[in-house]
Amino acid sequence: MKKIAVIGTGIMGHGMAANFLKHGFEVIVWNRDKKKLKLLVQKGAVVAVTPREAAAKADTVFEVTANDESSRSVWLGDDGILSGAHKNITMIASGTFSVSWIDELARVCAERKTTFFDMPLTGSRMGAEGGTLTLLVGGKKAKLQKLKPILKNISRQVVYFGKAGSGTRFKLILNSLAAIHIVAFGEMLRIAKSSGLDIKKVGDFLAEKPGGTSTKLAWQCFNKPPKPINFFLRWIAKDLTYAKALSDSLPTPLLDEVLKKYRQAIDRGIGEEDWTIINR
After folding, report:
1. Does residue 118 or residue 182 have the better pLDDT?
2. What is the rounded distance in angstroms from the CA atom of residue 27 to the CA atom of residue 43?
3. Pick from 101, 18, 95, 90: nearest CA to 61
4. Distance between CA atoms of residues 55 and 33, nearest Å
5. CATH code that applies to domain 3-164
6. Is the confidence at residue 170, as pLDDT, over 80?
């Protein structure tokens, strides 16, 4: 049986590790906050002292940390993933990171002649826990086929975008569009309310019309804030910041305005709330 390491067991990593355990894999876990490992250990996971140890023992490593800084430390640190990587390992970055960091990491892995994919996730907490994530993949397509038997245990869809870094580029575009929808939806609800319309009818109708999943999510969360939280507001601000860097010199007035609103929300002290609270 393949040995899988999950580095970072927050909302997404915990769900992924739990599903690998459920399907009989030997799972090695590491997380800075060791309290988050307790439930996984009860389900049979083995705790590694360092990311290096986890990589040395695993056939496949999924890294699911929060941002560039945390990711860089678990990959390139003295006790990082790369210091423990062996020649047959497959390494996957599944957080949402900046393009500059992912491109750098892909180059380092290529120089070491190790297999690397960037594979950001969509599906939030429900998808991670239910094994129904969508995986947005960048890397060598031929080697991706060999991963499919593993990936099917955590996902319902695997979408290949091209060379390493392509998955991250698309994920930043996707998250930016979702954030714009969320903010736009809230603005339209305020107009509906001020004009005397039945806000429930408006919300129910719009949630099933153009705007897709993000509009439906916005309406659900407007009525009842999610508990536990699906996605911290501060993380969507982080993703929008990375997306702004990706856009380079292109004019992005909508992205700029939405990023401004989320940063203002953080300044108001609600960065630890769900990202959809922007409309409340």
Report:
1. 118
2. 10
3. 90
4. 18
5. 3.40.50.720
6. yes
Bridge partner list, 4: 27, 60
157 - beta bridge partners? 134
Hey, where are the domains in the chain?
3-164, 170-279
One-letter amino acid for residue 108 of the chain: V
User: What three-state secondary structure class fits 59?
Assistant: coil
Reported as a single tens digit per residue, the pLDDT across 24-82 is 999 999 999 999 999 999 999 999 999 999 999 999 999 999 999 999 999 999 999 99
For residue 93, the surrounding DSSP H or E stretch is strand 90-93
**Partners of 91 in the beta sheet?**
61, 116
CATH for 170-279, among 1.10.1040.10, 2.160.10.10, 3.90.190.20, 3.40.50.920?
1.10.1040.10
Q: Taking Cα atoms as reference points, which of 20, 75, 27, 21 lies closest to residue 52?
A: 75
User: 257: Cβ–Cβ under 8 A, 6 or more apart, which residues?
Assistant: 183
Q: Which pLDDT tens digit goes with each residue over 81-137?
A: 999 999 999 999 999 999 999 999 999 999 999 999 999 999 999 999 999 999 999
Q: Where are the beta strands (DSSP E) in 64-215?
A: 90-93, 115-118, 121-122, 133-138, 155-162
Contact assessment for residue 81 and residue 106, using Cβ atoms and an 8 Å cutoff: no
DSSP-derived pairing of the beta strands 3-7 and 60-63: parallel
pLDDT for position 1: 64
Per the structure block, which two tokens stand in for 90? 């497959």
